[in-house]
Amino acid sequence: MSAQHYTKVLIIGSGPAGYTAAIYAARANLEPILVSGDKPGGQLTITTDVENYPGFADPIQGPWLMDQMKAQAENVGTKIVSAMIKDVDFSARPFKAVADNGDVFEAETVVISTGATARWLGTEGEEKYRGFGVSACATCDGFFYRNREVAVIGGGNSAVEEALFLTNFASKVTLIHRRDELRAERIMQERLFAHEKVEVIWDSVVEEFVGEQPEGMPMPGLTGLKIRNVKDNNVSELKVDGAFVAIGHDPATSVFKGHLEMDDEGYILSAPNSTATNIAGVYAAGDVTDKIYRQAVTAAGMGCMAALEADKFIAEHGVSKKKTEAAAA
Prior knowledge:
It is a single chain. By secondary structure, this protein is α/β, with parallel strands linked by helices. It has helices at about 15-25, 60-75, 140, 155-165, 185-195, 295-315, 320-329, and strands spanning about 5-10, 35, 50, 60, 80, 85-90, 95-100, 105-110, 115-120, 135, 150-155, 170-175, 200, 205-210, 220-230, 235-240, 240-245, 250, 280-285. The strands form five sheets. Strands 1, 2, 5, 6, 7, 8 and 19 form a seven-stranded mixed beta sheet that branches. A five-stranded parallel beta sheet has the order 10-17-11-12-13. A hairpin with a 5-residue loop joins strand 15 and strand 16 (about 235-240). Helix 1 packs parallel to helix 6 (about 295-315). The longest helix has 22 residues, at about 295-315. It is elongated. The mean pLDDT is about 90.
């Protein structure tokens, strides 16, 4: 049975940005409601060892970190609803959002933290070895491949950036691209081609991610790639310890199209040094607006910013006339 909800701060989406916004909003006595979405916890729920989140001397598990953030948000007063927002109305306050279960949410302010997902190849073995040799984030996982050989799949700016970053750790980086020229900016290409650790395999696609289960290890690990040349269909195998898929990300913003200003890739635009969108009282935090850093710690920081900005907005504008009258009736 559907329900009606009202809150001063509605947080759409979980993960580091959403949970952090919820923690700060709850501690400001704003009684936030967080609608967790179809993938509570976001991308960290499929991340194994996390070594770059401040405060932990030893590696931690991504799902555990998200469970802790969720519990903290609930402990300070956040109401969490397991649903997915399918429609919004930002034309007037209180803002309105409708969930897939029929629940209707009215809110004085909204924090959007629905995140983004990496594009994957869909190739055989890719999902099997994801987190065990296959990654979509060199900044997150590059450290694990110190003095080892890795591959990067892609040909745009993201792929070249990932490859160059990995040269700080890997003994060799092989870039695999399906065409005979890169789409990355020329200056980045020049840096890539000049680097002694980098080799490029042109006109090729990954047919399969292959691996084995080392003795004494609970999970299999990646050992190489089967690569097919698109011109002659010749298949060869490349021995690598890790592979990074760098073909872009897709922000989860489809429900907000037509309601908020976005760039041509679908990322929500925000004001400089702020999480404010083009609609006063609506904020965007984390990977839904950030296509540069895409880190858990930066997403959490933006979630904090969004909650503080929402609190300030309510302090300056008060609650909507509709709700003030309803409370007095």
